[in-house]
Amino acid sequence: MNSSNKHLPAEKRRMATIEAVVELAGEQNPSEITTAAIAERMGVTQGAIFRHFSNKDAILQAVMEWVAERLMSRIEKAVNAESSPLAALESMFMAHVDFITKHPGIPRMLVGELQRSEDTAPKRMVQTLIGRYSDRLNLLFDQGKTCGEVDRNLDKETAATLFIGTIQGLVMQSLIAGDVGYMSRIAPKVFAIYQRGIRSAS
Predict the structure, then answer these.
(1) What is the pTM of this model?
(2) Euclidean distance between the first and final Cα of the chain, in Å?
(3) Which of 5, 48, 114, 199 is deepest in the core (most CB within 10 A)?
(4) How many CB atoms lie within 10 A of CB 106?
(5) What is the pLDDT along the chain (202 residues), one digit of tens a residue?
(6) How far apart are CA 81 and CA 136, in angstroms?
(7) Where are the domains of the chain?
(8) Given phi > 0 = left and psi -120 to 50 = alpha, else beta, which region is 33?
C-alpha cells in the first residue's frame, strides 16, 4: 500500500491509477483486476479513484491511451534514429519487445480488450492503436521498396500481420518459459529470420 498516493493532485492521481493497473496486469489476469485491488495497490479508497474516473471502463480507456502514447512514442524515436528502412524496422521490433519486457501485463490487456464481445471505448482504442502501428510498418515497407532494401513484390498487409504476430509469439514463448527476459534475448535472432523473408534479393 502506497501512502504517498493519498494526497496527489488530480492528474498525478490519474497517472498513479494507470500505473497501478499496468503493474497488476503483470501479476494476474487483467480481466480479474477490480477497482478494490487498484485502490489497495495505490493505498487509497475506491471513492478516491471514482472522483477521477466514472467507472472501470473509463480507467481501462485511460490505460489504453497511455499504452498507445508510450508505445508509439518509443517506436517513433527508435525509427527516427535509423538511416535505412530495414534498420528502422529492426529498431521498431526491438523497441516494442523492450516495452513489453518492461510492462509484461500490457499484451494480456490488449488481447483481453479485443476479445470482449461488446463495443467499448477501450476496445476501440486498441483497434486504433493496431491501425496506427500497421500504418507505420507500411510506410517503412514502402520506403524499403523504393530504396531497394525490401522485395518490391512484398505483400505489405501480410508482412505487417507477420511482424505483429511474431512479437505476440515471443510473448507466448516468454510465458511458457516463465521468463519475460527471454523475449529480449531471442528477439534479434527472430528478427533476423523475419528480415530474410522481406529483404530484396538484389
Answers:
(1) 0.89
(2) 59
(3) 5
(4) 22
(5) 454 555 567 788 899 999 999 999 999 888 899 999 999 999 999 998 998 899 999 999 999 999 999 999 999 999 999 999 999 999 999 999 999 999 999 999 999 999 989 999 999 999 999 999 999 999 999 999 999 999 999 999 999 999 999 999 999 999 899 999 999 999 999 999 999 999 998 6
(6) 15
(7) 1-53, 56-198
(8) beta
Domain 1-53 has CATH 3.40.50: no
Residue 107 identity (one-letter amino acid): P
Q: Report CA-CA distances (Å) from 13 to 18, 34, 53, 105.
A: 9, 17, 10, 21
Q: How far is CA 48 from the centre of its chain?
A: 28
DSSP 8-state secondary structure symbol assigned to residue 105: T
Burial class (CB in 10 A: 0-12, 13-18, 19+), 26: middle
Q: Which long-range contacts (CB under 8 A, 24 or more apart) does 162-168 make?
A: 162/194, 162/197, 163/89, 163/93, 163/137, 163/194, 164/130, 164/133, 164/134, 166/93, 166/190, 166/191, 166/194, 167/93, 167/96, 167/97, 167/100, 168/107
Fold agreement between 1-53 and 56-198: no
DSSP summary character for residue 199: B
